[in-house]
């Protein structure tokens, strides 16, 4: 399993094949099929294996703090295993570690909502936010890999065009963003969005909407 996960981490799920994994393990493909039926089953087992890395948040800190830690841990997991976000967006694998993670997340929120359906909605909202946020981060990393340019280098390459847009005066709000706004530190956007999301959920729960 560790060989398959390491290969997917390095090269993505497209690089994953039973023959390639067997070669990485120094064994024959036939022997691998004695343990898993096909690639889909292997991926389900991989998903469950990496979910075992997730620590459980302390429910004694309150549902918002617990769910915030839960979201940060999930983000870190998705960044360590870039292939996982695509799998987490699909019908869930139901291995023991995935169920453990899901049960803990639901337990963090259950008392605050008093309703199992609303509990599911809250947890799903946070999971969707984390998956989408990480997808944006990974897209930037992929852009660096495919273009060979860092974000700063890319900005320099479009600098002349941006200056022309600013000088035109047609887009005042864009100009303020370019000229006056500071670039947030790494991870600041995620934290801002997470705080806003949880605050909005809290207001919604208190209002009974």
UniProtKB/TrEMBL annotation:
Residues 1-54 form the HTH tetR-type domain. GO terms for biological process: negative regulation of DNA-templated transcription; response to antibiotic. PROSITE patterns: HTH_TETR_1, HTH_TETR_2. Gene3D superfamilies: Homeodomain-like (1.10.10.60), Tetracycline Repressor, domain 2 (1.10.357.10). InterPro entries: DNA-bd_HTH_TetR-type_CS, Homeodomain-like_sf, HTH-type_TetR-like_transc_reg, HTH_TetR, Repressor_TetR_C, Tet_transcr_reg_TetR, Tet_transcr_reg_TetR-rel_C_sf. Pfam families: TetR_C_1 (PF02909), TetR_N (PF00440). Coiled coil: none annotated. GO terms for molecular function: DNA-binding transcription factor activity; transcription cis-regulatory region binding. It comes from the Bacteria. SUPFAM superfamilies: Homeodomain-like (SSF46689), Tetracyclin repressor-like, C-terminal domain (SSF48498). Residues 17-36 bind DNA. Keywords: DNA-binding, Repressor, Transcription, Transcription regulation. Transmembrane segments: none annotated. PANTHER family: HTH-TYPE TRANSCRIPTIONAL REGULATOR RUTR, TRANSCRIPTIONAL REGULATORY PROTEIN. This is TetR family transcriptional regulator.
């Amino acid at each position: 399993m560790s060989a398959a996960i390491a290969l997917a981490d390095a090269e993505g799920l497209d690089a994953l094949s039973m023959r390639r994994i067997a070669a990485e393990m120094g064994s024959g493909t036939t022997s691998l099929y004695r343990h898993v039926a096909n690639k889909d089953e292997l991926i389900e087992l991989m998903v469950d294996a990496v979910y075992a890395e997730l620590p459980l948040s302390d429910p004694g800190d309150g549902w918002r703090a617990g769910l915030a830690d839960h979201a940060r841990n999930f983000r870190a997991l998705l960044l360590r295993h870039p292939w996982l976000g695509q799998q987490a967006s699909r019908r869930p694998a139901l291995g023991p570690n995935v169920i453990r993670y899901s049960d803990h997340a639901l337990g963090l929120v259950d008392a605050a909502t008093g309703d199992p359906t609303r509990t599911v909605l809250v947890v799903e909202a946070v999971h969707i936010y984390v998956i989408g946020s990480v997808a944006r981060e990974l897209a930037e990393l992929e852009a660096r890999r495919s273009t060979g340019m860092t974000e700063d280098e890319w900005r320099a390459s479009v600098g002349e065009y941006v200056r022309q847009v600013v000088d035109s005066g047609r887009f005042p709000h864009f100009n303020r963003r370019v000229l006056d706004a500071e670039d947030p530190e790494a991870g600041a956007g995620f934290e801002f969005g997470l705080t806003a999301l949880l605050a909005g959920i809290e207001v919604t729960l208190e209002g009974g909407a």
